[in-house]
Amino acid sequence: MVSELLAETNILTMISQILQQQDNSHSLVRYLKLEATWILTNICFGDENAILQVFADQYGFVAHINSILNSSDLHMIDQVYFLINNIMCTSSEMLVMAYRKFKLAETIINNMNLML
Question: How far apart are alpha carbons 10 and 39 in whole angstroms?
Answer without folding.
Answer: 14
